[in-house]
Design goal:
The protein is of the alpha/beta class and about 170 residues long. It has one domain: Rossmann fold, CATH 3.40.50. A 5-stranded parallel β-sheet has the order 2-5-1-6-7, with helices on both faces. A two-stranded antiparallel ribbon has the order 3-4. β3 and β4 form a beta hairpin. It is globular, with a radius of gyration of 15 Å. It starts with a strand and ends with a helix.
Length: about 170
């Protein structure tokens, strides 16, 4: 495990937290796609810049890249040796998004670009609600096909996450 993608079913599922834990355990640098995609003030990066930043990272000998961003998924997938997929219930994801907003009020999280203070709005909640079940089905199908060429680790609860961390040493 030297080139690891951490992906998940939804925002709030725990991708960033798990990626940080794996990075600490394996002493591998972690990159959060949100920091590459969002510019200060929640301005979206140009797709070319977003892709180029990832192309530089995937050429390194070791990395953990956390985030979904399907538009550049293949770029990361083609270089990864391991896929860690996180899936938690929809209500857990929604709860965590709201909790995160309250805990980080007026601040920028460490896995976000400076100048992007934590926020929540109806559009974001609606995105989670309307994409969760479709993504869950699609990700399950993808992970099944990934097993042919990559190590796939699926975690769906805290016990499975703890077991993964123990396996990592």
């Amino acid at each position: 495990m030297k080139k690891i993608m951490v992906i998940g079913v939804s925002s709030g599922v725990g991708k960033s937290t798990l990626a940080k834990k794996i990075a600490k355990k394996l002493d591998i640098p972690v990159y959060h796609l949100d920091t590459l995609y969002w510019k200060p003030g929640w301005v979206e990066a140009e797709m070319e810049d977003f892709s180029k930043a990832q192309e530089v990272i995937v050429q390194q000998s070791q990395w953990i890249i956390e985030g979904n961003y399907s538009s550049t998924f293949d770029l990361r997938f083609n270089h990864a040796d391991t896929i860690v997929y996180v899936e938690k219930p929809l209500l857990t994801c929604l709860y965590r998004v709201v909790k995160r907003r309250i805990q980080n009020h007026g601040r920028t999280r460490s896995d976000m670009t400076p100048g992007c203070e934590e926020k929540i709005d109806w559009q974001f909640i609606k995105f989670i609600l309307t994409t969760y079940h479709r993504r869950k089905k699609k990700m399950a199908q993808r992970c099944e096909t990934f097993k042919d060429t990559k190590q796939v680790i699926m975690v769906r609860n805290n016990r499975e996450i703890e077991a993964l961390m123990e396996r990592l040493g």
